[in-house]
Amino acid sequence: MDVAANSLLPRLxxxxxxxxxxxxxxGAIGVAAALSYVAGSxxxxxxxxxxxxxxxxxxxxxxxxxxxxxxxxxxxxRPCRTRPxxxxxxxxxxxxxxxxxxxxxxxx
Length: 108
Description:
Mean pLDDT: 77
Order of helices and strands: HHHEE
Helix content: 40-55%
């Protein structure tokens, strides 16, 4: 994953759950990579290289622009999240990461 995910997850996830969250994240990435290798090789055997590249690119585009699962689904038609997640950083008393001397939770 990228630097943003590795920086944001420790701020959003409780320390006791951080190992599980990273394990699930990177485990899912590994499973997705393995499935893409198998599906890509089967598609390449059945078609040609240009067709395989177009299909892989098209599926990547669809997954990227698709709404999150459960968004607008179900009988109550839940709306999608429209506001950003607020990250909280806990700073020890006596230390400062900005010009202010305030200690405790800080939100951005």
